[in-house]
Model the fold of this input.
Amino acid sequence: MHAAVTAVPFLDLTEEYGELESEWLASIRETGAKGSFILGPNVSAFEQEAASYIGTRHAVAVANGTDALVLSLRALGIGPGDEVVTTPFTFFASAEAISLVGATPVFADIRADSFNIDADSVRERVTGKTRAILPVHIFGHPAQMDAIMAVAGEHELAVIEDCAQAFGATAGGARVGNIGDTGCFSFYPTKVLGCYGDGGMITTNSSEIAEHLRKLRNHGATRPFIHDEIGANSRLDEIQAALLRMKLRRLDEAIAGRRKVAAEYTRRLAGSAVTPPSMPVEDIHVFNLYTVRTGERERLRGWLGDNGVGTSLCYPQGLHLQEVYRSLGYREGDLPVAEQATRETLSLPIYPGMPPSHIDRVCELVLGPEAG
Done:
């Protein structure tokens, strides 16, 4: 009789939900009793608590991470005729937001170690039309913000940090979202700080930008039924805000759990056929994803899948080569480091509370005879 195969999900939030269930359901009942469902006291409190955690003067809650990017670009006055330099190795929303405001995404290459945008490549792509740089702290690894801010300073460019995967990460002693002009966060359930629906937030130290963002998220209204520009319906609800407040209080523990899993993977996979992700020396990587490199990516993914281990391809095609951006004229070979990453990277399961037996199973299979 064969032993049962240990299935390892890519992400499992059931244990976390069990710990939060009673408190969250109580908050839902309290919200219902008060009849305040949108932009209520929990949203205001969460904005204050998140700003305090990140270290910014302001935090503005919005409906999702994509809206956070779009509204940031709009608040900074970026639109048709403008260019924004960003990375091709990220989720589509990073570039999509630029297109949605009528600007043009310009793709720079990435660093081979961190998978983050390369500041030298950014500098090469700045033109007279460039208005901003949009770095992404990919997988929870902070980008090289000191060098990016230096390029921005040289050319008087805005910097919009895409922090969707990196709540709690630090770069140069500051938390991400407290370095550029704005920081944009997603609270999609898979994120380091995630809710049980959609949610997003923008951080800034500019009172002027914060005021503009609050207007934009509410249909451009200056006061009820009075509008002086076209805005959006992008408001966080009370129930998700209540959950995010609970999870924010536990966030450092959750990040420590992710980093513990990552450290164990890295220790055990050292010297194997896969290359573990880089670990910044002084900054904090929060490991929203644990992404390895291997020249046998498809073979490894198939082997893990056949044995019940969930994985993810983040990301199988660079944004510069996506069909939707064909008109921009990029060709295979234009951004070689990013293109190599799309062929070699594979994200392994990681989440707070991941059982040691699941880590054992993943490592056993990655190191196994069919892995590479």
Remarks:
- Residues 14-249 form a domain with the Aspartate Aminotransferase; domain 2 fold (CATH 3.40.640.10).
